[in-house]
Every structure is written in structure tokens, then in C-alpha cells.
Amino acid sequence: MKLEHPMGSTPAAAALSLEEWWMPFTANRAFKRAPRLLSRAEGMYYYTPEGRQVLDGTAGLWCVNAGHSRQPIVEAVQQQVATMDFAPAFNMAHPLGFQAATTIAKMAPAGMQRVFFTNSGSESADTAIKMAIAYHRARGEASRRIIIGRERGYHGVNIGGTMAGGIPGNRKHFPAMMAGVDHIRATHDLARNAFSKGQPAHGAEFADELERLVAFHDASNIAAVIVEPMAGSAGVLVPPKGYLEKLRATCDKHGILLIFDEVITGFGRLGTPFASHYFNITPDLLTCAKAINNATIPMGAVIARNEIHDAIVNGAPEGQIEFLHGYTYSAHPMACAALLATQKLYVDDGLFERARELAPYFEQALHSLKGAPHVIDIRNLGLVGGIELAPRDGAVGKRGAEVHIKCFSADKNAALVRFTGDILALSPPLIIERAQIDALVDAIRGALATID
Length: 452
Ligand SMILES: Cc1ncc(COP(=O)(O)O)c(C=O)c1O
Fold this sequence. Notes:
This protein is an alpha/beta fold. Helix content is about 35%, strand content about 15%. It contains 16 helices and 15 strands. The strands form three sheets. A seven-stranded mixed β-sheet has the order 4-10-9-8-7-5-6, sandwiched between helices. Strand 2 (about 45) and strand 3 form a beta hairpin. The two termini are about 30 Å apart. Pyridoxal-5'-phosphate binds near residues 120 and 125.
């Protein structure tokens, strides 16, 4: 393939063959005409192959919360690979798996001290769905199999997560892969809530839709509701005040499990270990991944309420495998080593507290973009920000993509900014400094001024 290196592309890519890697969630043909490569990362910055520094405004993909290539994590992984590269976790185990589970259980909400390891957020979502169904079955309610998701929700790309997810583009090509799924409406309400700081005031009543679905399907058929406490991938949708409380109450009333997908919100993003702590609402199952080990080695987990574990595990005959589910790489030793080092670093550096302290500054900086060209909404919570742009006539999503490319390819003050359609999403590493928050916002301001 001939490379033209238009705006945003990386000359070093010319030395590579780009045909073979079928890239994930990428417009492959467009990308390969103008590839953007990263080759090194340290602290708050990525570096391109030719040495350009790019401020990481997105913690990679919402996952590198402690900043890049942190020495204690690097050393832990190096040491582990030399000590024991892999150990099976089916009817065998290694100490690091138990230490990792104990570490996560200690920070999890009270009553949720059972941890099942996966390798990604997608696997966590599908694992949680299976756990919910297995739980009801173990208690003699095998008819409870319907999963309720939410429009604009994102729970990864495996079958359960795709079906429970609510981003139309992601579902369009994969209809009806799983029976028994329904959705409540999304919480986004631009007309009433635009430019809200923190949780918006309007929309708690959107949770009432769950009662409607219960009346429609009957509670005896519904296993679980799965939502992101704060939706990230669909464009940073912060739950309205009172909304999650209502969801929790309706689930309790009807014996439905509440699954919080905390793949983005887990591990300090909102200034607390989990969003469950931030909102003071305890789910029944909590999925996480991403920042669990600073994204060093693929890893995820489902944290279960103790009763859910007990119902499934104690409900099975002695000596039999109780939950017929697991991955070859569940609790991979290197992932566990990275987890232990990462969680220690979070504590040693006080990164969750830091996120909490920085949040008001981040909010103020972000909202200074109000009035900039094309900006129709700004929303934020913790160290997460969303900036919604008016779509260009007949070209929805183009403005978002252009800001992303402009910010990345700027000669000075380049920044990595994520986009979902015309919504820009920010989720910097929790080590970000105030001056870097300013630089990030300036990079976006500059890009907005140059696009039409
Ligand atoms: C809320 C949520 N759930 C699940 C996933 C899927 O995670 P992964 O890409 O690790 O499979 C993501 C990824 O962005 C996510 O944001």
C-alpha cells in the first residue's frame, strides 16, 4: 500500500507493511492511508516514532490511571515473567491469584468480597451475565434469564455485552445473537441538562422505565439489569441525581440483580475506588478491567456480592465444578503481578485522592470551553469530561474525528483526545498536573478554532 502521509500520519509508518493487522474498532482503510503511530510512553506522555511528544488526555483507552511505564509495575512484571510465566487456574492455583483477589476484595464495597478474574471488560460483562443467570438458577428461579441493558450503554463486544449494550452502530450488524434482552432509555437529556457540572438535575424519572419493563416481561423472568453507573464510551453520560437510587430500589423490589459495569469508572476515575462508592450505591455484581493493573497486561474481574457466590458455590454438589465458566488466562501470573504493583502504587501515590482533589480544577478548565465554536454541551464527573459538538450537516461524527486528528498532529502541544461521533471524551491519567490540564484544554480550544 502506498502511503501519502496526509495530516496526522506518521512518516515512520512508511517502513511498515500495514495490510496484515486487521485493526479493532478502526476505519482500517482510512487509517492506513494516514496512520498515526505511538512508539513510546512515559508518565503523562506518548511519543511518536519520530519523537513528537503527545499529552495523553485519555489514559490510553481510559485505562492507564497511574501514568505510563511506571517503574514499580515494570519491575514487578519483569520479575514475574522470569519467575513463573504462566500457571493454570483450573483446579490449580498460584499465590498471586489469591493475593490479587484479596487486594481487590479489600477495596470493593462492603459485602462484595468475591472476585472472579477475566482478561477484559468484555469478558467481565459476559461473565457477570452468566453469573446472574446461574445465581437465579441455583436458587430455583431458572426462569429468570432476561437481561435489561440501557440504550447507549457499552459492555464490550462479546455476545452478552453486545446484546445488552445499547450503541446502535455496534448492534446493527449483529442482531438477535441472544434471546431475552431489553433496554431502558438512555439518560442523556441535552435540552434540560446541557452544561451541567457533575450530576445533572433532571432525569431521575428515566429509571421508571424499569418498572414498565418489569410489568411487560414479569419480574419472574428477569435476571439482571446492567448499566454503567456513568456511561463512558457512548460519550460521557453522567447519571442524573436520584437515577441510580431509583434503579437500585426497583431491582430490590423485584429481586432483580443490579450489575454495575465499572470498566471505566473503576480504580479512581471518580476519585473513589469504584463509582459504587462515589454514588454510595452497592450493586450485586460489579465488572471491572482497564485500570485494574494500569492496562499493563490484559485483565478484568467480576466482583460479586458474597451471597451470589455462596448461592452458586454452596448450591452445587460437593466435589463438582460449581460455575462452569473461566478463561485459560484468568488470574494470569503476570497480570496479577502487575495488579499488585499497580494497586500499591495507587495507594502510595494517593492517586484516588489526587483525582478527587483535581476534579474541581478539571471541571473549571473544561467548562471554560463553553462558547468555543461548535460546543453544545460540556459534562464532567471526577476526572472524566465530555464535550459535545454540533454535528456538521450531512456529516455526523466528522467534527469529532477532525478535532482528534488536529490535536494529535499539532506540532506544539499535541494531545490525545478521544472521540465518539461528535463527542470528545477526556479521561487523563490521575497523575496529571494542573498545567497539563490547561494544556489539554488549550489543545482542544486550538483545534476547535480551526475546523469548520
Ligand atoms: C463500560 C465498559 N464495559 C466494557 C468494555 C469493554 O472492555 P474491553 O475493551 O476490555 O473488552 C468497555 C471498554 O471501553 C467499557 O467502557
